[in-house]
Amino acid sequence: xxxxxxxxxxxxxxxxxxxxxxxxxxxxxxxxxxxxxxxxxxxxxxxxxxxxxxxxxxxxxxxxxxxxxxxxxxxxxxxxxxxxxxxxxxxxxxxxxxxxxxxxxxxxxxxxxxxxxxxxxxxxxxxxxxxxxxxxxxxxxxxxxxxxxxxxxxxxxxxxxxxxxxxxxxxxxxxxxxxxxxxxxxxxxxxxxxxxxxxxxxxxxxxxxxxxxxxxxxxxxxxxxxxxxxxxxxxxxxxxxxxxxxxxxxxxxxxxxxxxxxxxxxxxxxxxxxxxxxxxxxxxxxxxxxxxxxxxxxxxxxxxxxxxxxxxxxxxxxxxxxxxxxxxxxxxxxxxxxxxxxxxxxxxxxxxxx
Length: 354
Known about the structure:
354 residues, alpha/beta, 2 domains, 8% strand
């Protein structure tokens, strides 16, 4: 990555996509803690019975110690059930049986010490209730779902970074002339050739798609900049291939993700397939122009060969600012971490003040 590139991501534009990942992560940790409790209890009953020279006062306090071996095996099997869907791909009903069994055994056998805090006394049942509630809500095993989503996101982000590194080698850098391109607007009423804007006024190139949350949420601020500088700067939004279509990295794979999206007020869309024809891409770009730009700014659509997106290494989103001559005066770097409208506003002010 070019050391001159900036890490400018607005946390507020990421919360709708990062929050569900955090929820899934912690629920998965809770489930593994429940399994760990089961394994520890199994160890206690299997290896610390009276026959293993366990102090007599401990067995006297816990009358169940005379059933140490069967209890130990029961704890072991239940703890194993809790994590089998994640480790072996079994149906989530096994983890449900495991957690329910451990929940019952905790209340039947557990005799909390008076020295324990309230949280310490209810910790395991509380974790089990949280995991079971999440399981009922999702209809899937929490840890299995969480690990699948996280690995899917990691794999896609790795692919995305490799793609960015490859195409950025020929993308325009600071001080270079922006490569020319010709695109048609969503309504097919306007054809734009970038070179025709030279020697007129600065140009802000805004690349992205509506399935990219940082782009969609950040574009609200871009629209504000347009209203402020539309007489001084030409804003050129270019709609690219979808950042997160359903068949690739779908941000709405879990009910938790969908609920966070709905409650966050994000303008990003979850349930959208990758358009397979130019007509389909123009249709979704028209919806984007209406939702994000109120149809006040012509939105141009990249062709199905994604030529312009690759030429500017613009996936999933990216910003460029060109001076009147068509030279790049602002190139913050790869999206989504460089997509920040406030920083663009600073650069526009600096350019106009010269």
